[in-house]
Design a protein that fits this description.
homodimer, about 800 residues, CBS-domain, Clc chloride channel, four-stranded mixed beta sheet, 34 helices, 11 strands, elongated
């Protein structure tokens, strides 16, 4: 707002609080301060996409804002700046008052209008479902084609990938296919020119990665990585403009297949959630009910999250539970219905598009054998592996990301991505299980040997075990380094593949032992004629356990696995492995990968699931009244308001009357709107902030306004909240957290006998919460603590042991 | 508390507010008033199961309650009277402060103790799962045996029911079985003496019903009906002592099989939820963390609800979603984990017990055919039927229940139940589908004809269609009259059977048409060699649609059906039918059967899913200050406190200081506790209610207490809430509703500048909400409205049409 920067001759006598440079930096709404420090530097050179028009109102138009005897002033929908937290309460309440107006006009016409209004949500989620399904099919098809084009092409139909090109003609055992020609065949007419093929393979990989990274870095920085952490934060009530914009969507849709095709060890699952949310956000712009209501938009995003996971895994119920368990802060039953609807539509569109030709979505495993009781030991081993791998992965990956952000690497992002793709493809070309498409590998690992030998997995040789272990370690190494590079892609599938390799190896070894010593007492329950160990199921459990270790989800994973296998038989093994993985993982540190990214990037996210204990009172965590800028309800003039808006960046101002009673709270953007609507008013004009009673009693005196044209009274009542949430200064911090969590308010006023004492924002709470585990977090990103513990990591031993015990609380 | 009834010479000069008879009845906490009017008369002759001991404290012991310089006074766990609402906030907060104390003592010993403490929840849900599984198996086996014993018995093993007696020897087609002998064979050695069999059948039916009803009426009145409405209310934060007690549990476990065996048209599903909750409640008594914390108990009940549905339908995920969608007011993710665990344990125990020998739980349907697009019309018809039947059922059943409560029928409950069983069995003996066990009928209706002809369902004759229609109408008629009779049992399965009959009939007719006119354009998509219409699937959809119409659930039903069929193929038909059923049902009136029962019985239940709009302000709905009894913080004496406790039944008293600032709120039971702990204190002793600051400043003056032994000062600070939730009198009622919903507080203090203006309880809100749809509810229970609409029901036409349109909002 350039307007506010015009220097004006300030009317000094109306200054109520001196604005010195010293108190300007520790003021109550530090949200604006984050702007500089919390974000990656070049990601945020964005301009407001919704400029607020400066109304050039005539005096006549302004009449609307004068006192008119009607006491029913309603706050409008809130407008939010970038990187600010939303006020759930106000957004939801503002809709309710809107409803009231409709109900008052009780005609059929109005009813029909209100229905169209109300059915908007269903229309939006319908379209999200359809579009998410289409995009998922597009991403799957193009990623598969790009991935295969590195090795050769299909001369009969160049646009077909290997699977479709070889449909029905492929040799099931050694996977040779004459219709697909590799590049050395094309150029040298010699299919066995391995070195040339390798060169082409690596070249394409690097090319795709460079292209993907270029798009991300130079066109839409927000489309990097999976975006799950940011969406979690957005769902928690934070504004990140353009993160869900059209540019991000388009770039992500193009660069995601490129990144996947380049062979970088990344998955598309988290990104599908981001894409679905982008679709949702763009659609809300065309529906009046959602356009300006950030709280309602969150409901749509929740449904979109469900659809994203739903198309990624082909698990509609799992998708909804993912949205409920992992993503959403606010998930009313109504949203659950819409999420289900959205999920199912998305899955059906995807099945209809049928990008996998006949296969059900992603992968499907069917086991008809039962598990044996002695296998519980293996399930525990898999769980422990999942937990340890998960926390190790989080630790190393977060450290790598922190390193990347603090060194020269942040200036050479495209080169970094290209190099990662280069080195990945150089190595993975020689290991068949690394070269394969990740979801294909998962599918193969999950398959039983009865269904045919795929890629030699059922051969009894040490070679397979070693190959699988190499794949596991290689993938783990590359994923840790790759997740965080400026390309789209998530860690769901990579972590699952790693776990699946481990599980399969364990299964193969156990199967071997059992067949070598069938009379060993442990194997008594095995049927002599049947395979005793279902190694495909072990792979599935491994995949679930590592996914659980990395993300710390439980129920959604169980349900996804249930939907994939279509049987309840393996629910118990799955729960054992997952619970073990979660417990072991939590013992080494709370929070999944996305939670850690939120911490790393300092997003203001208040975890609804966590029960925090700070042990302070409101007065200990509030920003004191003396550090605030307040508006005196009776003395404020237009000039003063302009000045406080101009001279600081605080997000809101409490309004007090002469006796210091709190009479309201006005946000920065509301104040801005109020001033914009009264542009032509003289700076000396008084502004009415009185509560309703005061104003109605003083409306008589206002009646004389028309006579004195020089000093006008401007009514600010439509622009501020006359009943902000206030608490006594002696309430506990836990109660305040509860208020933020459950009511979703943006700031809470602290009073003593209704007199202003201070103010608490979500950021104040978060600062206090962060202090609780700052030590642990510092240890992760590698910052050495200041206190004199001699051997840093060693000193954790007892503490870690205690943590293992503590986790049962969760 | 007899103690408080002892007349004492009241010290009149300390009376602050005159207690006249006129203001005694319209006082703020009307909860106690409900005691007389809202409940069925004889159901409530219960005594407090937890007598609060009257401590005979010596002066030395009382020292503990004096001011001791420590400012950290903590409220204890709240104690609640019967039929009072709980204070979620306080219960949850009191646990947090408990945690704080633990954390302060930071030793390994403490940690281990805290883990044992924390793992209590998992242990409880584990046991709930195990016991629910066992009880479900017991109920299933005994109900089946009782049901079969009406026709004959198994001479080889008298304790076997017909299915087990005839296992492997039964003729699959006409269901004859030589091992099972009927009663005329036993007595007359002639199996065909139909009349005698009929007499015995009817006699047993009446006998079982009488026994079941006797137990319910004379031993545990709470075990009547399904109990789902009450559990919903309890989960919403209401205390109904003994509703989940041991006596109720035992009686329900015995009388439920008797009721089912008597042939009354009732199901066991809702009752299983009640039984599981009873188990949960009894278990919580042995765990310190849950024993006294009513809010935490609700978390256990939520898990128990999930387990109940889970064993009833064999659908663990569906059970959790049922608990989430239908039952719980407060369902944090932590509770979801426990519910899942509980559900799975329950199902596995049940599968392990295997009461159905080989069959998976309840019924399982597998369809391998696809549905055709033209069938959407049928799905819509089924949905419309479900919706209309549902609302008709609710209307008639509620009217019947209201009639029963207001006439002589309430005095002849056992006779009524016996008569219902008599008349039901007299008629249903002649219709095979009515005589069959309900879940068996459902199973048969869901089956496809490829799996064999069961009970002639696959014969192509008009007779079957007519028989099914008779069954449908008969069951509908009897269920409407039976649900509400004093026996345990719910309406889930009966309403499903009715829908299944309808669906099957529709399927059979459509199949017939298709086979008669295969070339009709609509049937183009049918494969000539295959059956085109899957009439078993139609039955399933019908069952879901009527269940949806009666209960207004959606997602849980979809998931249950998904778990039953194990395929996603029929999700779309199911969603179409269910959504239609819900929309049509809602058009004729909001709320499922349980919601209406809650309305009928006037339980204080605030629906979390509903968005209410009252359009008033806090000051319009509050009870005014002048109608309240307040405690002046500085002047209150023991005598005065005893007096207000003795002379009225209000549930709480605001505490104000001299300037009328609100300094706290004390509940009736806390006041009682406080007085009991200071029994020996002189009535003239002053009570300290000052806020912490005041007290600490006045603690010096208290130091002199020891010298004057006559007038002691009693510190009441441990007994009251110094920071009750208070709001400005100008906030909207919608905001207040939000506070009640989300924070779960018990009462909200209304202030203006922190000075007491009034108080709002949940009941005040409910009264205002009830007014919104009182007209509709009156029409249901048959009360004629006072305003002069000429032809009552006809005038609804336009209104109903508008409602149909309005429902899209949901």
């Amino acid at each position: 707002m350039d307007y506010f920067n015009i220097k004006q001759p300030w009317n000094d006598d109306i200054m109520l609080l001196p604005l010195t440079n010293s108190n300007r930096n520790n003021l109550h709404n530090r949200e604006s301060i984050n702007k500089g420090k919390n974000q990656e530097d070049d990601d945020f050179d964005i301009d407001d996409d919704e400029e607020i028009p400066l109304y050039n109102k005539t005096n006549n138009e302004m009449e609307n804002f004068e006192v008119n005897g009607d006491n029913d002033f309603e706050l409008e929908h809130a407008k939010y700046d970038d990187f600010s937290t939303i006020d759930w309460l106000r957004d939801i309440m503002s809709e309710k008052t809107g409803k009231k107006k409709q109900i008052n006009r009780n005609s059929l016409n109005q009813y029909i209008k209100s229905i169209i209004d109300a059915s908007q949500s269903w229309i939006i989620v319908l379209f999200i479902g359809i579009l998410a399904g289409i995009v998922a099919a597009f991403v799957a098809i193009s990623a598969a084609w790009l991935s295969d084009i590195k090795t050769g092409y299909c001369p009969s139909n160049w646009y077909l990938n290997r699977r479709f090109c070889c449909l029905k003609v492929e040799d099931k055992v050694n996977h040779s296919c004459s219709r697909w020609v590799n590049w050395s065949q094309v150029f040298f007419n010699n299919p066995d020119h391995g070195f040339f093929n390798w060169i082409v393979y690596v070249f394409f990989a690097a090319l795709f990665a460079a292209a993907s990274s270029y798009l991300v870095v130079h066109v839409a920085p927000y489309s990097a990585m999976s975006g799950v952490a940011e969406i979690k934060t957005i769902l928690g009530g934070f504004i990140i403009k353009q993160f869900l914009g059209a540019k991000t969507l388009i770039v992500k849709c193009i660069s995601l297949p490129l990144a996947l095709g380049s062979g970088l060890i990344l998955g598309k699952e988290g990104s599908m959630v981001h894409i679905a949310c982008c679709i949702g956000n763009i659609l809300t712009k065309y529906f009046s009910r959602y356009k300006k209501n950030e709280a309602r938009k969150r409901e749509i995003y929740s449904a979109a999250c469900a659809a994203g996971i739903s198309v990624a895994f082909g698990a509609p119920i799992g998708g909804v539970l993912f949205s409920l368990e992992e993503m959403s802060s606010y998930f009313p039953v109504k949203t659950m219905w819409r999420s289900f609807f959205c999920s199912f539509v998305a899955v059906f569109v995807l099945q209809f598009m049928n990008p996998f030709r006949g296969k059900t979505v992603l992968f499907q495993a069917t086991y008809d054998r039962d598990w044996h009781f002695f296998e519980v030991i293996s399930f525990l081993i898999i769980g422990v592996f999942g937990g340890i791998f998960g926390s190790l992965f989080i630790r190393l990956n977060i450290r790598a990301q922190a390193y990347r952000r603090s060194t020269f690497l942040k200036y050479v992002r495209i080169a970094e991505a290209t190099f990662m793709a280069f080195i990945t493809s150089v190595i993975s070309y020689f290991v068949i299980y690394m070269r394969m498409d990740e979801s294909e590998l998962l599918e193969v690992l999950f398959k039983e040997c009865e269904e045919g030998d795929h890629y030699g997995l059922c051969q009894r040789s040490k070679r397979i075990v070693i190959l699988l272990l190499i794949t596991m370690i290689g993938k783990a190494f590359f994923t840790i380094l790759t997740y965080g590079v400026s390309v789209p892609g998530g860690v769901f599938i990579p972590s699952m593949t790693i776990g699946a390799c481990f599980g399969r190896v364990l299964g193969i070894i156990l199967q071997h032992i059992q067949q070598a010593y069938p009379s060993f007492p442990l194997f008594n329950s095995c049927h002599p004629d049947k395979m005793c160990i279902t190694s495909g199921m072990y792979a599935l459990l491994g995949a679930m356990a590592t996914l659980g270790g990395v993300t710390r989800m439980t129920i959604s994973i169980v349900v996804i696995m249930f939907e994939l296998t279509g049987t309840l038989n393996y629910i118990v093994p799955c729960m054992i492995s997952l619970m073990t993985a979660k417990f072991v993982g939590d013992a080494f540190g709370k929070g999944g990968i996305d939670h850690m990214i939120i911490r790393l990037r300092n997003y203001p996210y208040l975890d609804q699931k966590e029960e925090y204990f700070i042990g302070k009172k409101a007065k200990d965590i509030m920003t004191l009244k003396d550090d605030l800028i307040t508006i005196k309800s009776t003395d404020a003039t237009i000039g003063y308001l302009k000045r406080i808006l101009n001279e600081n960046e605080y997000q809101g101002y409490p309004i007090i009357d002469k006796e210091e009673y709190v009479t309201g709270y006005i946000t920065r953007s509301d104040l801005k709107t109020g001033l914009e609507r009264n542009l032509l008013v003289n700076d000396n004009a008084k502004c009415r902030f009185g509560d309703l009673k005061n104003v109605s009693s003083s409306s008589n005196s206002l009646g004389s306004r028309e006579h004195s044209n020089e000093v006008r009274n401007v009514d600010f009542r439509p622009f501020f909240d006359a009943t902000p949430i206030s608490v006594d200064e002696n309430v506990t911090a836990e109660f305040i957290i509860d208020l933020f969590k459950k009511l979703g308010s943006r700031c809470i006023i602290v009073v003593r006998h209704d007199k202003l004492r201070g103010i608490i924002t979500k950021k104040d709470i978060l600062k206090n919460i962060e202090e609780l585990d700052s030590e642990y977090f510092d240890s992760i990103i590698g910052i050495h603590r200041r206190n004199q513990e001699t051997n840093g990591d060693k000193s954790y031993t007892l503490r870690d042991a205690l943590r293992i015990l503590k986790i049962f609380k969760k």
